[in-house]
Design goal:
Residues 218-447 form the Peptidase S1 domain. It comes from Poecilia latipinna. GO terms for molecular function: serine-type endopeptidase activity. Keywords: Disulfide bond, Glycoprotein, Hydrolase, Protease, Serine protease. A hairpin with a 2-residue loop joins β1 and β2. It is globular, with a radius of gyration of 23 Å. Helix content is 9%, strand content 28%. The N and C termini lie far apart (48 Å). It is mainly beta and 468 residues long. The strands form seven sheets. The chain has a six-stranded antiparallel β-barrel with strand order 13-14-15-18-17-16. Strands 19-20-21-24-23-22 form a six-stranded antiparallel barrel. Among the domains are: 91-209, Roll (Mac-2 Binding Protein), CATH 3.10.250; 336-437, Beta Barrel (Thrombin, subunit H).
């Protein structure tokens, strides 16, 4: 495996599909914009989003700057991040309009905003033990209960964007992180009485992060075995592999924003694959593609997208979801994690026919931002992973795929393959979109799908079924 598909020199993304179209058709290139000495080009193509790519020249000194240019791609906005000039000082702003409501109205079970944004993102799981928290009066509170039931579990799961509830259980207050032990809330008890109660730990999707069909054994090379990465998917554009992705629920796939555009009818998702050329492999139609609203092809942040399938998956030993991390969950520098994909095995090479994988260590943001590495380009939305000496990395075609880490025998999605300089070059490790940072956005998009819009009259505000 080599390095990620983007070259930081230009300050804009080159789309994975653009690269393939350009190489195959030997398309004409015309000067577009320069940035830090790197020449960009407009690809004269029929592709609706294939507009910007590198000319192939590597600059002596490259600088990334977000700035206006005539190389612009269309981006589909996801609900939850809106660009409005209206400010709501001391109030909550409804994202779909200029309406301002009291912060006390947020997560109170009453839909005050036209599109109900004030009642989204009100539930989360925190810490290593998946502690259930709810937002109340602008604060996150840990849920305590002695009378928790399956209906409450189902309600919480739906608010997190899941279609089903698997299991809830209790743990003691002292067994969770200290910052979660204060500011408690209960359905039936006062704050004073709550201290004596147990904490609800909500276990979601117990089948996530497991590999029941994979039998670990020593093998030569880095070719992946069936069931080793059951969450890995291949995104196909007009029957050709373009990028990777990860299964996170029955209906949702997570990938990189730079991999896809919003015309869902041209894409299919292939699951359970280890070889690209297998005929009759299970492919699924795409219902909707949601790219982060703040993603911009010239930038580096917010490189994340969700794909909703037309029909839900059927899980087995070779097709299973990977777990998302919880809020506040940290993954330490040096932790060994896995990357996987059908990307090129060398820079500018052909995609691999077989699914390949490699182990790489996580690198701290401080190290990755050093002058001889990425010179301050790594933001809170990014994670670095790989070897500073080079040699092992992700590459073209791996984009959108998982950076997966095992924690207590459970596999969690820590990053989405995003960008890098070259492939496996010294001091240029792969850069991945941070799932912990993107967690609120991911949950919000999935929750919107479950939120049914009730009919409202001018006299009555809609009520949302909430656990509080």
């Amino acid at each position: 495996m080599c390095g990620a598909i983007f070259y930081a020199q230009v300050g804009m993304y080159k789309n994975e599909l653009c690269v393939k179209v350009c190489v195959k058709q030997n398309l004409k290139k015309e000067p577009c914009v320069t940035d830090g000495g790197a020449t960009a080009a407009i690809l004269q193509s029929s592709s609706p989003f294939c507009k910007c790519a590198l000319s192939g020249k590597t600059p002596q000194a490259a600088v990334i700057k977000p700035r206006e240019s005539r190389c612009v791609e269309n981006a589909q906005s996801g609900i939850g991040h809106f660009q409005h000039t209206t400010t709501c000082v001391g109030k909550f702003r409804c994202g779909s309009s200029s309406q301002c409501v009291s912060t006390m109205a947020q997560c109170d079970g009453t839909m005050d905003c036209e599109n109900h944004e004030d009642e989204l993102g009100c539930v989360r799981l925190s810490g290593r033990r998946s502690v259930l928290q709810v937002q109340k009066r602008g604060e996150w509170r840990t849920v305590c209960s002695e009378e928790w039931n399956i209906q409450l579990g189902i309600s919480a799961c739906k608010q997190l964007g899941y279609s089903r509830h698997v299991e809830s259980s209790y743990i003691s207050l002292t067994s969770i992180e200290q910052d979660l032990q204060t500011n408690l809330i209960s359905i039936n008890y006062s704050q004073a009485e709550v201290i004596k109660l147990q904490i609800v730990v909500l276990h979601l999707f117990s089948e996530c992060g497991s590999r029941p069909q994979y039998k670990a054994r020593i093998v030569g090379g880095n070719v992946s075995k069936p069931g080793q990465f059951p969450w890995q998917v291949s995104l196909h554009f007009q029957r050709e592999h373009i990028c990777g992705g990860s299964i996170i629920t029955l209906s949702w796939i997570l990938t990189a924003a730079h991999c896809v555009f919003e015309n869902s009818s041209l894409w299919t998702v292939h699951v359970g694959l280890t070889e690209q050329l297998i005929h009759g492999a299970h492919s699924l139609a795409v219902r909707r593609i949601i790219r982060h609203a703040q993603y911009w092809p010239k930038g580096l942040d917010y490189d994340i997208a969700l794909i909703r399938l037309q029909e839900p998956l059927v899980f087995d030993g070779f097709v299973r979801p990977i777990c998302l991390p919880n809020y506040g969950e940290e993954f330490t520098e040096g932790k060994m994690c896995w990357i996987s994909g059908w990307g090129a095995t060398e820079e500018d090479g052909e995609s691999s026919v077989v699914l390949r994988s490699a182990t790489i260590p996580l690198i701290s943001t401080k190290t990755c931002n050093q002058a001889d590495v990425y010179k301050g380009l790594i933001s809170s939305w990014m994670i670095c992973a790989g070897y500073l000496e080079g040699g092992i990395d992700s590459c073209q075609g791996d984009s959108g795929g998982p950076l997966a880490c095992e924690d207590s025998s459970v596999w969690k999605l820590v990053g989405v393959t995003s960008w890098g300089v070259g492939c496996a070059e010294r001091n240029k490790p792969g850069v991945y979109t941070s799932i912990t940072k993107a967690l609120s956005w991911i949950r919000l998009q999935m929750e919107i799908k479950h939120l049914k819009t009730p009919k409202q009259s001018n006299m009555t505000r809609a009520k949302k079924c909430s656990i509080f």
